[in-house]
Amino acid sequence: MRTNSLKTFVPHNFVFEKLKRIEIVPTLAHVGRSSWRVNFDIYDQDNSNSLVANVFTTMVATNDEHDASVPLPNRDALKKMVVVSNTSPSSTKQQTSTMIPFVKPPTTTTAIWQSHVRQTDCDSLGHINNSVYPLLCEDARSYAARTGQYHDQTAKQLATFPTSFCQVNYINQAKPFEPLRILSHFVNDEQHFYFEVISAGVVVAELVVGVDTTINSKLSSKL
User: Fold this and answer.
1) Opening angle at CA 211, ends 207 and 214, nearest 5
2) Residue 118 carries which DSSP code?
3) Contact 152/186 with Cβ under 8 angstroms?
4) pLDDT (tens digit, 9 = 90+) per residue, 2-11?
5) What residue ranges define each of the domains in the chain, with the CATH number in brackets?
6) Which residues contact 67 (CB under 8 A, 6 or more apart)?
7) Model-level pTM?
8) Beta strands 163-170 and 35-44: pairing type?
9) Phi, then psi, of 60 in degrees rounded to 5
10) 139 — pLDDT class (breaks 50, 70, 90)
11) What is residue 60's three-state secondary structure?
């Protein structure tokens, strides 16, 4: 996997309190030389099939050692399956692509969280499972908020809100028991958080995280 992006279109508490049945509509959105992108639209079946969230995942074909990309097999056949824009069979709402450039903010806003790579966070390939990176960054953001590392007043408040958008760029591999450092920056112009995940001195991932500031959010309602 190279990149992963998730965007929600409902308040944070809606997922836990009202969402019961969903419909997931996958489409093949792009085929490159060695990579392909799959889009997933997620609909609420009990609410006129309204769009709840969507996910964009870019994956790369690699060799057996997973250290180099290789040309996609059956690439021509896959390209014929690409859907430029998709509409769910039971809905007229189209996909909404949300991709944000990874732009590192000024280092003066940096907050730092340090730990080690846990064995339980790693998969059968021997490195951190892709799904764990957002959780690590949530820990880093929560720690920065709790310890006062965010000096910007807006950042202090937004750091306590739940996530509504997350985009991950997977760069390298972090392995068990390596030292782990997460640099956290608040991007005031966009009001989101940018993270660099560093393992054994190497940047292994970068993330952009946006927050849900609606008054219906469980966390925001307690502020």
Assistant:
1) 170
2) -
3) yes
4) 888 999 888 8
5) 3-79 (3.10.129.10), 107-222 (3.10.129.10)
6) none
7) 0.78
8) unpaired
9) -125, 135
10) very high
11) strand
